[in-house]
Amino acid sequence: MPRPTRVGRRAALTLLACAVPLAARGQTAPAAAVALPELSVVGSATPTGPLPGEARGSLSVPSVDTQRATLYGTVGSVAFVDAATIQDRYANTIRDVLKDVPGVYVQERYGQELRLSVRGSGVARNFHLRGIELLQDGIPFNLADGSGDFYQIDPLALRSVEVYKGGNALTFGATTLGGAINFVTPTAYTALAPNILRLDGGSFGTIREQAQMSRIDGPLDVLVNATLTNSDGFRAHEAQATRNFNANIGYRIAPDIETRFYLGTYITDQKLPGSLTLGQSLTTPTLANPTAITGNQSRKVETERIANRTSFLLDVGKLDVDTWAIHKSLYHPIFQAIDQDGWTYGISPHWAGTFDLGGFRDDVVLGLRAYAGQNSALQFVNIRGQRGAKTLNSLQSASSYEAYGENRFWFLPDVALMTGAKAFSSNRTFSDKGGVPGNVTPRFADLTYSGINPKIGLLWQPLPDLQVFGDVTRSRDVPDFSDLVQQNLLNTTFVPLQAQRAWTYEAGARGRVDRLAFDVTLYRSDLRDELINFSTNPGLNIPAATFNTPRSIHQGVEAAVTLDVARDLAAAGDGLSLTQIWTHNDFRFVRDPVFGNNRIAGIPPDVLRTVLSYRHPSGFHIAPALDWVPQGAFADHANTLRVPGYALLGIEAGIDFANGVSLFVDARNLTDARYVSDVAVVANAAATAGGAGALAAFYPGNGRSVFGGVRASF
């Protein structure tokens, strides 16, 4: 059983150390603010000319330029995506948004189902999300137990994306191994245009409509966005329909007070094709697993979210007070029919300000977070997708209380010392409400996890467009209910897992030198009690089992380099750039009792992406790209079976007319390569019934596809 840690006195002392500059309250730094680079190392060049709303913002949501500058003030590895760069591609999932970010591994399984991992977070878990905090507009999107899904994130309803890797997400209070990803939606001030209409379509019977409208009327601003998507999918039994609605309403109560409400409804109805054998994936990838068809396996999710941020501009700094409520209803017939309904509530005050401390600039962030939720978790015998006899009647309750602080002290004009810490206490309570004798052991469990996660680092900025950094952070990942409540064909068992702990060391540099932009980070994480998954029967779609491995290592390289190859080629103002993105993953057990020093299965060791982009001042642009995985991931922790590597060739092209109309085409996997996009990891493939050749644990990638669209902005 996890042992609670005494955090009260230690938390107070640690956070007090972070907040020492408060003694200098009421002053501002006399020196000019340190300039921050505006890095652009993504595969697609940003559109030429100023973007509507780019230089504007409001008290609760700053301008995109300010968002970028704030992000690159972080002492550690981060990334920024301006959503203007993804307007001219078929952005159906968050893979299309994040595929140009080094260190982020995001891979499609089918439809909206993805594997998302940063630095090996949830490395062997091939469903849902663990180890990364998802936020929308800086407000948590995860449920109370830390679990999360991707369906609610609409790529067409974004204005920017901020990626904080690992402990660098402390500015939000997140200290998991993978960090946090903040998806920022537009306001009427930051929208690319007051009105946007878009129609996409293409392969696999795909069609999507989107409409966005925004208005400003004195102190009131309103933005509404709706996206409808329908697709038959590449594989049999993969049809999906999604309905996403986002809105935000801001009101300037006074010159120094603004409140903003966020409203969202997200509906997904996704058929599940299941997993195949390796041979089937490479020869007949459009097949569905027979059990997926006979069980009419699917996932129907309805989520409603309401959140509020009220911002106060103070004499020193700014205070944001966030509140949120999320309702999620899930009906998920797989090996059994999972029927869940739950709520998550939270509140979080967050203050940031700058002081003068003995003539030196000092930046301080302080925050609190409290959130809780309950989830009614029922299960039934799956009878062709319908509920049969009840097999589980349980209640899952989770709560967390957190305090965090971060301090950046510029003791030299170009060097900052960053210190910070987070104290937390998280509770997980599970109860079997009865009605299904002999199903759950134990029938009631109550666990509390607590601790302190510190951080220290240095940032050196010798030039306005160059930063060098290094830091050390501690992370803790608390198990969610998908880890704690484990399944097999016969019953459900509660497993009292330990929290995953890690120390992460990283060093890197980012910036621009003449025509070369770069962002390179090396990191190593030493983990204790890592939460490792393996599927007991992936062909039946049974959720993976989880265990703590005593020691493990995650280390790697996150690199993105963009070279402006040529300018003024065919016309004055045009440009040709070459981008290389490389993510190296080395994740290993360390003297594990069963797996020794094997590689942890699930993610390939190297993922590379090369993009050649050309943009003409007339608005024409074209970008061929090569996605290359030289060596595939292991399918098992015993390292007896590895999937083949692959290379995918694609091309994006389009034209933006002066009247606000844009046309684009996005062609993928032009050679129609057969490959495995994801794996349901098992313990030992060679030991499975029928041998590795009969193991149905693989998800084939999509074949050749072409999508096109038209967008009107006015």
Describe the 3D structure.
It contains six helices and 35 strands. It is mainly beta. The protein has a single domain, classed as TonB-dependent receptor, beta-barrel domain (Maltoporin, Chain A), CATH 2.40.170. Strand 23 and strand 24 form a beta hairpin. The chain starts with 7 loop residues before the first helix and ends with a strand. The N terminus is likely disordered.
CA-based gyration radius: 25 Å
Instruction: Provide the structure class.
Output: mainly beta
- How many distinct helices? 6
Shape: globular
Report the sheet-strand fraction: over 45%
Short description:
The protein is mainly beta and 714 residues long. It has six helices and 35 strands.
Secondary structure layout plus pairing:
Blueprint: H1 8-18, H2 64-71, E1 78-82, H3 94-98, E2 104-110, E3 113-118, E4 132-136, E5 139-140, E6 160-165, E7 179-184, E8 195-202, E9 206-217, E10 220-231, E11 240-254, E12 257-271, E13 276-277, H4 278-283, H5 290-294, E14 298-313, E15 318-333, E16 336-357, E17 360-383, E18 386-412, E19 415-432, E20 440-441, E21 444-463, E22 466-477, H6 481-484, E23 485-487, E24 492-494, E25 500-513, E26 516-534, E27 545-567, E28 575-589, E29 606-615, E30 620-629, E31 646-656, E32 661-668, E33 676-679, E34 696-700, E35 705-713
InterPro entries: Beta-barrel_TonB, Beta-barrel_TonB_sf, Plug_dom, Plug_dom_sf, TAT_signal, TonB-dep_rcpt-like
Domain TonB-dependent receptor-like beta-barrel: 234-670
Domain TonB-dependent receptor plug: 74-180
